[in-house]
Design goal:
By secondary structure, the protein is α+β, with helices and mostly antiparallel strands. A 6-stranded mixed β-sheet has the order 15-16-17-13-18-19, sandwiched between helices. It is flat and about 135 Å long. The N terminus is likely disordered.
Amino acid sequence: MRRLLVCGKLHLLQPGFHLVAKRAHLRIESLHMLTQFQHDLVQIIDELVLKRQLQLEFDKVFFHDYASFKGYSLESVMRLNMSCARHSVQPLAFSRHGKAPCFEYGTRDANTPLMHHPPPTIFPHMHDHALKVLEYSQLIELVGEHAQTGAGKRLVHAMRPARDIDGILDARGAAPDALAMLEAGLSVPGFHFEEIDEILRRVAPVGAVLEGDDLVACRSLLVAVGDVHAALLAEPCRRFGRLAALAAQLEPAPNLVSALRRCLDDDGTLFDSASSRLAELRREGASLERGLQRSLERILKDPAFSDAIQDQFVTSRNGRFVIPVRRSEKGMLNGIIHDHSNSGQTLFIEPSATVGLGNDLATVRLQERDEMVRILGRLSDRVREIREPLARNQSLLARLDAAFCVARWARSYHCVFPHFGSATSLLSARHPLLVRQFRQEGHEPDVIPLTLELSRETKALAVTGSNTGGKTVALKTLGLLTLAAQAGLPVPIDPESELEIFDDVYADIGDEQSLEASLSTFSAHISNINRILRAVENRRCLVLLDELGAGTDPLEGGALACSILEALAESDVLTVATTHLGAVKNFVHEKPGMLNAAVRFNTETLRPEYVLDVGRPGASHALLIAQRLDLPERVLTNARAMLSSDHMRLETVLAKMEGDQRRITSREREMRGAEKDLLRNRDELKAELDTLRKERRQLMHDAYRQAEAVVENTRRDMERQLREIRETTKDEEAKAAAAKARGALAEKERKLQRGRQQTAPRAAHPVSAEDLRKGARVWVEKLHDHGLVISVADGRRNAIVDVRGMRFTLKAVDLGKEREPEKQSEHVVKLSRPRPQGDGRSVTELNLIGNRVDEATEKLEGFISQALMANVEEVRIVHGFGTGRLQRGVHECLRSHPDIKSFRLGKHQEDPGGAGATIAILK
């Protein structure tokens, strides 16, 4: 047994700065449990820091019995390293205490004592600031809407970006398998259950008894566990390994579910059948209650008490049956007063004559209550026995729900799990929050995707162009999709896209003005950029800067913006900035590793096109827009006069480049459309050619079979004639001529047989003998469907294959390798069994007269398969009389066929054809 000891002190950022010590001893039974604990701890720390409620000060982690973790480095076992670095904490020392290694975590400053931490800063961690301005929480809320349980939604909401591929893959969990399962059209189990954390806490003490509705909640969880366990471990879903692995850890407890179903109604009421004693007590109580009601009704109807009775009904007070009596006439009816009305004018009296019956009923009800408590206690004991498995079940269901939640989000927003590499290649990227907005407004097709490709050598990208052209949207799309991808989420991009993994993402977007901190917009931007410059040293980060250099004098702002870009370029940082400043355009154009980009703008319609062109700067079009908006000409003339000739020429050149780019793109779009048409036509022609080749092969095959039958009949007639010649003549020349004719005919038969075998339908990619084994998935060419090999025989020459629940005996040469699934629409294609047509003879009778034995056997096997799929119970095989060889071959085939229950020869004058046909009964 391994033991992990965690010691730590945490500062709560609340008034008074209360110091809270946390200390926990846990028993870790496996590396998986250790990893899960680390993951949970990191999630808690992340969430509290994000809410600015906690500041990590000091951690120690001791591993006892470290030898049991051989094969794992401390770094891989304890990923808390990354979390501590994220919260300004790093490992300081490593030492051995006996056999136990020890890690100590403290502040970054080695000169600062471990138990002290620098005072908390006013601003949140820049990473968290980027999450806020890039609207990461809104995205997570959107994804969480697809969860079925609160627990699953909380897991989704807790997802945060990781900094390495292992962390990203861990965060994805089983979501890729869940998405693949949805795309395969398989039914997904429901995860609806009531959370039972509080119930498990209350049932923990020995002897604790749960209420009926609490037990029903436990039952609903176990029912969901059973459904999910069965669904995900069924044959179609078992290939989704990560889902199956989680499902395999579920513990359904079917016996407890049966007991809870037998005893409890859906509202938590105990059934009479919960125990024989409870049923007996309830019957007795019902009988006593009826008798008591009758006695009270007799009193109500007694004329002697008519003046005293207030109303003609029986009611109950304090668990006793009473009748309403006028206060003024209470002396007329002896009994016990249990209550009075609000006005005080009516008393509720239990007559003395029914007190005995009331006492008997109360006694039975008490016994019933005790029996109910006993039953609930027994069921509670069974719940207590599996309290830990129940908690694990709930956790596993939450993880599965979170996985399918992410998968449903991916399907709804056309997302894929991205590939990661050394460059940023966003293809057809869409901002998910913008997609949601347009979808709500009914304009989702109007969302224009972003394409942005940057090499690893790119240090900075300056995005310029007119206002409302989509510069900030492009910036936010890149930032949000990067965060989401590193959090393990699928994102709405083209599958061929590639993303880079960043150590952190920093963003300065929007109006950062703060009245409390006495910061202007410009000052707030500079404060943020200052913290970014200090944070990105020696780290691969993505920095997003909106309106760089704005908010102050354009000359000074331009110089400052260029200097900031140069400073960021000296670090291992990718900077994407938007700006209107011409100085920045010129600076970026001249610097290696920096690129200009422009958002495209249509100068004729004065509308942005939301397309990003990398490699050229964009014109602002301020004067053109003002002119089209009917600004007075004298104002425009004065404005042009104030601009330098160089600036005017630059704007003109940029506008011309923009127009050229738009025309080139339009032409390129037309060429792509033409190329798609050509490729589609090519594919259609290829498919048509393949179909014609198959039809030609089938026609040749049928022709060879018919020719074989003709030759076989000719051979039989010739043998009969030769036999007659031998019997009537002894001419040696005639015998020689007959032998020669017989040889020529036999050679013709061999050629026709070879042609039939060569043209027989075959799988495009035959399965090899090594791959033909039990459990293999193969393609059955004759049925045009996949099947599962149940067994192989005859030296792998034959196999029994299960196709959609029905078994067929097939030759190995008729089986092919598993085919890739074809892309289908969202509609599920179902297999329906063919029904007999006409009088049904096509699937109930097979005529084999004139066929060779091997050909007849092949036809018979296909005929039996068709009969099975048509749900036919009895078939008739016509083989005639002849020499008896065909009949013996048919019977041998039927005797060895696994789907034939029995067979017999036809009876004379009872069955058509008599003994010239065989009647077979199918299983």
